[in-house]
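Repro:
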Amino acid sequence: MSSVDFFVAVDLGATSGRVVLASVGSGRAGSVAGIDPQVVHRFANDLVRVPRADGTTDLYWSMLELWRETQRGLALAAAEARRRGGRIVSIGVDSWAVDYALLRDGQLLGNPRHYRDDRTAGGVRAVHAIAPHAELYGRNGLQFLPFNSLYQLACDAASGTLTLADRALLVPDLFAYWLTGEQRSERTNASTTGLLHAVTGDFDAELMGRLGLPGDLFAPLIEPGEAYGPVLPALAAELGLGPDARVVAVGSHDTASAVAATPLGEPTAAYISSGTWSLVGVERESTVLTEAARQANFTNELGVDGTVRFLKNVSGLWLLSECMREWSAAGTPEQRASELQVLLAEAASVEGEVPIFDADDPCFIAPRGMPARIQSWCREHGVAAPESRAEIVRSIVASLAEAYRRALAAAAELGGREVTSVHIVGGGSLNTLLCQEVANVVGVPVLAGPVEATALGNIAVQARAAGVVTGGLAEMRALVAASAGLVRYEPAVARV
């Protein structure tokens, strides 16, 4: 491969998306020098509210808008690759988990529902009436989250929507289908649906039958590193990609790509993939399907190269972003991010104790009114509520750090291993206040970075598929580590 051959990561997060162009260079004697990423396009991903006459609201994703922005990003990436005298070899798509599009005869039936929509309560009741969570955990290994795909599909079945569909595609698989015309289900993301068997690794046909779901609702599985196929010729020409560009399956659940890029140097290293959600856990070679793990609400999701991400979903930067949305309603995402940095600096100067609330309380899942809900939670639980914006931000940081501490302690106990260091990747790795707070409360060093772990993990899998890097996760992580410096935070004396 030439040094001017490029890879593209389409990284669709639950609040924003980005298209990243990267070259992968080799050092002397063929040693890997690292990934050189360039974000060529960023765009917002905001939920869409559709009011009903009864006063309720349905929440949707604007999937066609995301597709338009993705095409725009790919065209920009292709133009930049040409400007630099190169070509795009492959494209990988990752996104948030659990949400899916329903299709019939290859056509989109409508915009996918947003996982934060409160319709899922009925789906939970319907599924658990047939298969209680204790049984489900033994089959799929997933923590209980009311928006897991199988609960959403139960809602679609109850409404009659599912009878119109002959296929369900998770978001990255939908975009890969639009790019290539090939329908497949990438395995790491499929493991978040609740319909992939934790032992066999295949779709659980018996469970799907009991739930009234068609056995062929999802497309055949594809592994990270396998190709969906070449980009459709007409689309490739329109976007300027060239005739040889192909779409490669990556760890298409964004956390799978992020963990693949996390430079875990030893089995006792834990990770926090910190974005809209925080995914807190350890990497294992096998699942943990014990009753204790279920009671602790830990999940077993598949990672790259057959690994298991034994983790817990903890409310993440969503708490901060929703507060900033409230406080800067007229601002752009960039303006809100800038204002957040100012507030974080003010929060670091808040003296004395701040209230710690349960960041995992379901009352914080829904959008809007986050500052008031945090204050209400504190008052309802006999805790002095934070008043100023800086106090609220400081309280969020402290509460997230405490939630991480609990999750890491549980991961160590349930997984039978000590945690001696914590890697924070994603957006939270830039939050110095949060990183230091985690080091303080967990009592072990925190290594922060890379911030674009998801895109780097996405690109590393593509590079291996192209033969640029050989080996397993260790070699791919070395590729990433050579590309991004880490910031180390040592535990400090607790604040007074």
